[in-house]
UniProtKB/TrEMBL annotation:
Protein localization: Cytoplasm
Pfam families the record matches: tRNA-synt_1c (PF00749), tRNA-synt_1c_C (PF03950), tRNA-synt_1c_C2 (PF20974)
NCBIfam families named in the record: glnS (TIGR00440), PRK14703.1 (NF011291)
Name this polypeptide is given: Glutamine--tRNA ligase
Lineage, uppermost ranks: Bacteria, Bacillati, Bacillota, Clostridia, Lachnospirales
Binding residue positions for ATP: E32, P33, N34, H38, I39, G40, H41, A42, K43, S44, T228
Alphabetized GO MF terms: ATP binding; glutamine-tRNA ligase activity
Subunit comment: Monomer.
Catalytic activity: tRNA(Gln) + L-glutamine + ATP = L-glutaminyl-tRNA(Gln) + AMP + diphosphate
The gene coding this protein: glnS
Motif 'HIGH' region location, chain numbering: 31-41
Keyword Aminoacyl-tRNA synthetase included in the entry's annotation: yes
Residue intervals of the tRNA synthetases class I (E and Q) anti-codon binding domain: 453-527
UniProt entry keywords in alphabetical sequence: Aminoacyl-tRNA synthetase, ATP-binding, Cytoplasm, Ligase, Nucleotide-binding, Protein biosynthesis
Organism of derivation: Lachnospira pectinoschiza
Length: 550
C-alpha cells in the first residue's frame, strides 16, 4: 500500500466532514448532452466517481440540459455508454436538470417575493452596456425597482408565452457595483420558444446555467460540486443562489484545472471541422481523443484511469504530454495482451531444405512475462513471410538480422541461414532462400553464436489483414494552431493503411476491440467500426518504444 498524499479536494472534504458540514459525500458528473465526451471529461468523471467511492458516498449522473438549442438524445446515449465504459457507476437512474424545471421556476418566484429578482425589459445589448467593465461599475437597470407584484405578474406572463424571445428576462438583484461582473444583476431566466428534447413545449422560459446549476446540486443533496477553473469567479453567484434560496445543506463548489494534452485537438469546433473536411472519419476516428475514439483506437478504461491518476488534481493549469497516455496503455497491456506475430511489410522466405507441404506447429508462449496466459500453436511451413527490413543484401555493421550467409533465429522455431535471394528489375527483393537446421527446433542454439531473432508468419497458413498505423493528426513541429489564421496545422501522414499485412491464422477470428501485441510492431486493437466477421482491421494503439519515462 503506497502512501499517497491527498489532493486539495480530498483535503477540503476531510475538513468538511471533520467540522460536521458534510454527512455524506455526494458528487456528480453534469455534462451538457451537446457533444461527445473526451479525455478531459474522463478526468472529471473519474475524479467525481473516485471521490464518491473513496468516501463511501454517492455519485450522480446528471445531464445538464437546460439549453434546448444544442441538446440531443443521441448525445445522452453516447455519454451514458462512455461513462459506463470508464467504469464509473452512478447512483440510481440518470438524472436530468430539465426534471427540475418546475422547482427552478418556483425558486425564481421565491427570489421575486424576497425582492431579490426583477423582470427587466432591456435588450441583450443594453444589458451589456449597463453592465460596466472590470474598471467601471455598472448602472442599475431602469426596471430594477419594479414592485414584487408587478414582477410576479410579468414573470407569470413570461412563463405563459406572452412575450417574444429576447424581450424580457428575469434578473437577480444583487449589486451593479460589485467588482465581480458575474454579480451585477445577472440574468437568471430568459424567454425562449424552443422545443426541449425532454420537456417538449411545456416551457418557453429557461433558466441560465449559473442559476440552474446550484439548484440542481442542492436538490440532489450534492455535497461537493466539482467544476473546472473557469467557474471560479462564478462561485460567489453560486453561493448567493443557494443562500438566498435557503437550502439547508448547501453544496460547495470546488474548482480544478482542466486537463489539456499537448499538441492534441480537443476543441469541439476544431474536431467538427476535421470531420466536415473529411480529415477524420467521424468523432470516433482513432486519431482523436474523444472517449469513443480512444476506445476504438484500443485504449482501455484501466489505462485511462491510470492516466488520470498520474495527472493528478490541481488548481494550476498545464498541458500533459500525449506519450504519458501511451505509457499507461503499454503498462496496462504488457501483462494482458497476447504477443502474436504479424508482418506489416512482408517479403517471402523459402526454406529450401524444408519438406514441401509440411505444417509443423510450434509451441509459442502467449506472453513471456505472464506464463499464466499459456501457449498456442503456430504453424511453420516451407514458405514464410518476414519483415522486409529484417533482410539486407549488404548489411552495415551491427546488423544482426538476415543477410547472405548469416544465421538467425526465427522466433520460437528454428535457426535459419540465408543462402540466396532474388530481386526484380527495380532491385526490390522478391524472395529470400534459406536452409534450416532441424536440430534447433524451438530455438535451441547450444554453443552457437546467433545474435538476431526475427518474427515470421507462414505464407501458406497465415492470413491477410488490413492494418492501420497512426501519427498525430497535428504537425507537432508547428503546434496545433496556425498563428496567422487560426487554422490547424495538419500532419498529412497521420494515417497509413496497410492492406496486405500477414498475420498468424488465429488472429483472423479476433473480434472488435480485442487487443494484441504484435511482436516488435506495437500494440494493436481490432477496429470496432470497419471490421467484419473473419475480416478484422487492426489499429495500432501505440508502438513498443516509449519516449515517456515516469
Ligand atoms: P467541452 O466544451 O470540451 O465539451 P464542456 O465544459 O462544455 O467541455 P460539459 O459537458 O459542460 O463540457 O462538461 C461536463 C463536465 O466535464 C464539467 O464538469 C466540466 O467541468 C468537465 N470538463 C470538461 N472539459 C474538461 C477538461 N478538459 N478537463 C477536466 N474536466 C473537464
Ligand atoms: Mg460539453
Ligand atoms: Mg460546459
Amino acid at each position: 500500500n503506497e502512501v499517497v498524499s491527498k489532493n486539495f479536494i480530498e483535503q477540503i472534504i476531510d475538513k468538511d466532514i471533520e467540522e460536521g458540514h458534510c454527512k455524506k459525500v455526494i458528487t456528480r458528473f453534469p455534462p451538457e448532452p451537446n457533444g461527445y465526451l473526451h479525455i478531459g471529461h474522463a478526468k472529471s468523471i473519474l475524479l467525481n466517481y473516485g471521490l464518491a467511492t473513496e468516501y463511501n458516498g454517492q455519485f450522480n449522473m446528471r445531464f445538464d440540459d437546460t439549453n434546448p438549442t444544442k441538446e440531443k438524445e443521441e448525445f445522452v446515449e453516447s455519454i451514458k455508454k462512455d461513462v459506463e465504459w470508464l467504469g464509473a457507476k452512478w447512483h440510481g437512474d440518470v438524472l436530468f436538470a430539465s426534471g427540475y424545471f418546475q422547482q427552478m421556476y418556483e425558486a425564481a418566484v421565491k427570489l421575486i417575493k424576497k425582492g431579490k429578482a426583477f423582470v427587466c425589459d432591456l435588450s441583450a445589448e443594453e444589458i451589456r452596456q449597463y453592465r460596466g467593465t472590470l474598471t467601471e461599475p455598472g448602472k442599475n437597470s431602469p426596471y430594477r425597482d419594479r414592485s414584487v407584484e408587478e414582477n410576479l405578474a410579468l414573470f407569470e406572463d413570461m412563463k405563459n408565452g406572452k412575450f417574444e424571445d429576447g424581450t424580457k428576462v428575469l434578473r437577480a438583484k444583487i449589486d451593479m457595483a460589485s467588482p465581480n461582473i458575474n454579480m451585477r444583476d445577472p440574468v437568471i431566466y430568459r424567454v425562449a420558444h424552443m422545443t426541449h428534447h425532454r420537456t417538449g413545449d411545456t416551457w418557453c422560459i429557461y433558466p441560465m446555467y449559473d442559476f440552474a446549476h446550484p439548484i440542481e446540486d442542492a436538490i440532489e443533496g450534492v455535497s461537493h460540486s466539482i467544476c473546472t477553473l473557469e467557474f471560479e469567479d462564478h462561485r460567489p453567484l453560486y453561493d448567493w443562489v443557494v443562500r438566498e434560496l435557503e437550502y439547508e445543506n448547501p453544496p460547495k463548489q470546488i474548482e480544478f484545472a482542466k486537463l489539456y494534452l499537448e499538441n492534441v485537438v480537443t476543441g469541439k469546433r476544431y474536431i467538427k471541422k476535421l470531420v466536415e473536411d473529411g480529415v477524420v472519419d467521424g468523432w470516433d476516428d482513432p486519431r482523436l481523443v474523444s472517449i469513443a475514439a480512444l476506445r476504438r483506437r484500443g485504449f482501455t478504461p484501466e489505462s485511462i484511469r491510470m492516466f488520470t491518476k498520474l495527472v493528478g488534481v490541481t488548481k494550476s493549469q498545464g498541458a500533459v504530454e500525449y506519450p504519458m497516455l501511451e505509457y499507461c496503455i503499454r503498462e496496462d497491456l504488457k501483462p494482458k495482451a497476447k504477443r502474436m506475430m504479424a508482418i506489416l511489410d512482408p517479403v517471402k522466405v523459402i526454406v529450401d531444405n524444408y519438406p514441401e507441404g509440411q505444417v509443423e506447429y510450434m509451441e509459442v508462449p502467449n506472453n513471456q512475462e505472464n506464463p499464466e496466459m499459456g501457449t498456442r500453436k503456430v504453424p511453420f511451413t516451407k514458405e514464410l513471410f518476414i519483415e522486409r527490413e529484417d533482410f539486407m543484401e549488404e548489411p552495415p555493421k551491427k546488423y544482426f538480422r538476415l543477410f547472405p550467409g548469416n544465421e538467425v533465429r526465427f522466433m520460437n522455431a528454428y535457426l535459419l541461414t540465408c543462402v540466396d535471394y532474388t530481386k526484380d528489375a527495380d532491385g526490390k527483393i522478391t524472395e529470400i532462400h534459406c536452409t534450416y537446421d532441424p536440430e534447433t527446433k524451438g530455438g535451441n542454439v547450444e554453443g552457437r553464436k546467433v545474435k538476431g531473432t526475427i518474427h515470421w508468419v507462414s505464407a501458406t497458413e497465415g492470413k491477410k489483414a488490413e492494418v492501420r498505423l497512426y501519427e498525430n493528426i497535428i504537425d507537432e513541429e508547428k503546434g496545433v494552431y496556425n498563428e496567422e489564421d487560426g487554422s490547424m496545422n495538419i500532419n498529412p501522414n497521420s494515417l497509413t493503411i496497410i492492406k496486405d499485412a500477414i498475420v498468424e491464422p488465429e488472429l483472423i477470428n479476433s473480434v472488435a476491440e480485442d487487443k494484441f501485441q504484435f511482436v516488435r510492431n506495437g500494440y494493436f486493437c481490432v477496429d470496432n467500426k470497419d471490421s467484419k466477421e473473419g475480416v478484422p482491421v487492426f489499429n495500432r494503439i501505440v508502438s513498443l518504444k516509449s519516449s515517456f519515462k515516469l
